[in-house]
């Protein structure tokens, strides 16, 4: 799925229409899913978010932000980075209401705590804040 959507807006739209987003979010949030699977789901969701503004709206309608924010609680750095990369893509879209970042008072302090994890966490979090 990942290889089919990267760089192909038509395939991204097709996957969204076919209902892949709820399934990806389901796998992303399952405790029984491996960290590798969760990371791949976050990567595919991030690729879908890099498509059109309608793609981002569809992702927001599926409540992607709470699922990705929950992923930031993982101890796995690669998974955290994939969630942050996806969040960055969503929050840099003009269709995303920025107040979605502030609905939970614990999010900003947690993002601040993640800044020192890697250069990628620093980059993605700074882009989310901007």
UniProtKB/TrEMBL annotation:
Enumerate the Pfam families for this protein. Answer: Arm (PF00514)
ARM repeat windows: 19-55
Q: Which InterPro entries match?
A: ARM-like, ARM-type_fold, Armadillo, ARMC8/Vid28
Task: State the source organism's domain of life.
Answer: Eukaryota
Checking SMART domains in the record gives: ARM (SM00185)
GO BP term, example: proteasome-mediated ubiquitin-dependent protein catabolic process
Keywords associated with the record: Cytoplasm, Nucleus, Repeat
Q: Where located?
A: Cytoplasm; Nucleus
Q: Which PROSITE patterns match?
A: ARM_REPEAT (PS50176)
**What protein does this entry describe?**
Armadillo repeat-containing protein 8
Organism in which the protein naturally occurs: Pongo abelii (Sumatran orangutan)
